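Section 5: illustrative case.
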């Protein structure tokens, strides 16, 4: 049986073991590999060099790591973006749930510097914006970034509408299986603005997320939208190719 590849719009591939990565590639997954800091960005670039056809590498600093990473490393990351010109920047963004409010100014400053770097090379930005969806959208729009993926989107309906109107994407996470509010987002969002993602190997309510869950994710989206699984798979693939590879 020939199976079309499944497209993961947000995965921490650098956290998986080499045999696991090898298996994902053999299974034909195409994976946007986000990074968390300088060392994982370097590992992600290494994985990309090995599996060029299946991996889209992102350089970034996760908002959860802004206190851990030194100023020098932050500057190194920004210069690495200029040197490597990756197709994607991430995981970057803002967080108003898991981080203290006192850090918001620093989060914004760092996010802005990544948005500027992304804009200068026309890279896609892979965005974390838990409970800061509106703030993040405002910053992305004003930065001039043309392509952005709001990963595991769970924000307000009017922000979802604006993201789609501006031409950005939301990615639906495999956690949709157990997260009812995410089902609601999948139902509300225009299918042409949807990608799917694992955020693997993040552990969510006892599930170790992985690209292996993408098939089920597509089926659940089909179910909540009341359309066929085949239509969802075909459209999500087309979205990915159009948005990431700029084909079609
Ligand atoms: Zn992530």
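Designed sequence:
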């Amino acid at each position: 049986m020939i199976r079309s590849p499944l497209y993961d719009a947000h995965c921490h591939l650098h956290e998986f073991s080499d045999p696991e990565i090898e298996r994902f590639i053999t299974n034909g997954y195409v994976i946007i590999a986000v990074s968390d800091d300088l060392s994982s960005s370097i590992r992600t670039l290494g994985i990309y060099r090995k599996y060029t056809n299946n991996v889209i590498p992102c350089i970034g600093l996760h908002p959860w790591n802004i206190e851990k990473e030194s100023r020098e490393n932050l500057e190194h990351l920004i210069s690495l973006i200029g040197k490597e010109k990756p197709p994607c920047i991430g995981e970057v963004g803002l967080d108003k749930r898991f981080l203290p409010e006192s850090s918001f100014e620093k989060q914004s400053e760092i996010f802005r510097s990544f948005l500027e770097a992304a804009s200068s090379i026309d890279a896609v930005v892979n965005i974390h914006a838990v409970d800061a969806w509106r703030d993040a959208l405002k910053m992305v729009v004003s930065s001039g970034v043309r392509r952005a993926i709001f990963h595991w989107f769970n924000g307000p309906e009017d922000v979802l509408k604006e993201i789609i109107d501006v031409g950005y994407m939301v990615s639906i996470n495999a956690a949709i299986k157990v997260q009812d509010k995410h089902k609601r987002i999948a139902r509300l969002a225009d299918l042409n603005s949807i990608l799917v993602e694992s955020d693997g190997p993040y552990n969510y309510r006892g599930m170790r997320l992985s690209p292996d869950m993408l098939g089920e994710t597509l089926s659940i989206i089909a179910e909540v939208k009341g359309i066929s699984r085949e239509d969802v798979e075909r459209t999500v693939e087309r979205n990915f190719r159009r948005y990431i590879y700029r084909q079609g």
